[in-house]
Write a structure and sequence with these properties.
Layout lengths: L3 E6 L1 E2 L7 E2 L12 E4 L8 E7 L2 E16 L6 E9 L7 E6 L6 E4 L3 E5 L5 E9 L12 E12 L5 E3 L2 E2 L2 E4 L1
Parallel strand pairs: 1-13, 2-14
Antiparallel strand pairs: 1-6, 3-15, 4-5, 5-8, 6-7, 6-12, 8-12, 9-15, 10-11, 11-12
Pfam families: DUF4402
Protein name: Resolvase
Keywords: Signal
């Protein structure tokens, strides 16, 4: 099996939403980037902060490719196909939301996100999920913190440090 090494990083950047909050991670050094938006009938804007970027860690992939799944609740990483763990620490994405105390929210993640390496290689993240149960609600202090993970699909055509933007949209219900 011919293995190529990958350092795989998924960076977050929330997409703008008309009535929701927009979270911006504009500079890789800025871990406290905020975005805000107002929903109809709400006096308190939503603020979204990316606390931790999604990181699938380092793996090598064989000629048949494979998948790296990252569970948002436990942070456990599962490898399938011709994927070999090269060490490192995989990390679920962590998002923090502030707004109107007790308000119900809607969190929207895309079905797929394409990542790209500096050499032009591509990988895809699918199955993005959060650890939220039921309808998310801001606490009495107006705060909510959640994690998200997904599945990184790799083939053996390219190697590199993969990066991309994952839109995380948060809206008042």
């Amino acid at each position: 099996m011919n293995l190529r090494s990958f350092l795989v990083l998924g960076l977050l950047l929330a997409a703008p939403s008309g009535a929701g909050a927009q979270c911006l991670l504009c500079a890789k050094d800025d871990s406290s980037a905020f975005g805000s938006g107002r929903a109809a009938g709400r006096d308190t804007p939503l603020h979204v902060e990316i606390e931790t970027q999604l990181d699938f860690s380092r793996v090598a992939v064989g000629a048949m490719g494979g998948e790296v799944a990252l569970d948002p609740a436990t942070g456990a990483r599962r490898l399938s196909g011709q994927i070999v763990d090269l060490g490192g620490y995989a990390v679920s994405g962590v998002v923090s939301v502030r707004g109107a105390p007790g308000a119900e929210l809607r969190v929207i993640l895309p079905p797929t996100v394409d990542l790209e390496s500096s050499s032009g290689g591509r990988a895809r993240v699918t199955g993005l999920v959060t650890d939220l149960a039921g309808v998310p609600r801001l606490g009495p202090d107006g705060r909510l913190r959640f994690r998200f993970g997904g599945r990184l699909q790799l083939d053996a055509r390219d190697d590199g440090d993969y990066r991309g933007r994952i839109p995380v949209t948060v809206e008042y219900q």
